[in-house]
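The following record pairs a protein chain with its ligand, glutathione.
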Amino acid sequence: MMVLYSGTTCPFSHRCRFVLFEKAMDFEIRDIDLYNKPEDIAVMNPYGQVPIMVERDLILYESNIINEYIDERFPHPQLMPADPLMRARTRLFLYNFEKELFIHVAALEDRSARGDTKRLDAARIAIRDRLSQLAPLMMKNKYMLGEEFSMLDVAMAPLLWRLDHYGIELPKTAAPIQKYGERLFSRPAYIEALTPSEKVMRR
Ligand SMILES: N[C@@H](CCC(=O)N[C@@H](CS)C(=O)NCC(=O)O)C(=O)O
């Protein structure tokens, strides 16, 4: 059976939990206390981070890599586009999001940066601006790729859920992003994947 080592407030673990619940499959989620990490986390992931997925002798880390594996192993519903060209474009988008957006999410989650107001505020502003730039796209699209829910939406949902929690306020012009978020949050798998600590992040 697939086991996911997951942080109860970690947005990257949240992505993997979301995908697990989208698929009809057996899995186990093990909550990891990041303030008191078990030693085997560093053995399984040299970067000492969650999420980590273990299935028999396969150990994976990095949320997007884990999610692509789950998607290929349990293809229904398929979250990466079937067409190779769209698949490649989706991977490129995921990469760009990591470089331009989630690098700042990682800064907000970095416990060693707590108290570094300058760095945290810079991260908040970068996230606000990058998300605002996506607003025109979401004015015409139901999901990131158009009509179909995909891995890009999975990657984005945990961040949109945490905006209040992170102290990020989007401008009024970014209303299509908020609406898009509500669309994602209403998915049954999304609701099932939330931990008790995540449920209280948003009113
Ligand atoms: N790029 C990684 C980021 C994972 C990450 O940043 N995880 C954080 C928690 S949200 C972590 O495990 N930090 C280790 C620690 O706090 O000791 C991914 O997508 O999986």
